[in-house]
Amino acid sequence: MNSDELREGLLAAELAFLRNQIIEQLCRWQRCRDDRDLLTALNAVEELVAIEDVEPKEPQLRVVLN
User: Fold this and answer.
1) How many C-beta atoms lie closer than 10 Å to residue 25's C-beta?
2) Opening angle at CA 49, ends 44 and 51, nearest 5
């Protein structure tokens, strides 16, 4: 495995982890209304956006404007 494949694999794993963390924290916040859970989810979104900014060739998140 070359370094590009390894890097892509690690980035994909990190993206999946962050998405799962966001969902988990938002679900916890919905149940408990603890602002720490919401802040944790927002921090994970910030990290996810930073990763997306590094990988512009195949963005995982797409915003569609009508």
Assistant:
1) 21
2) 95
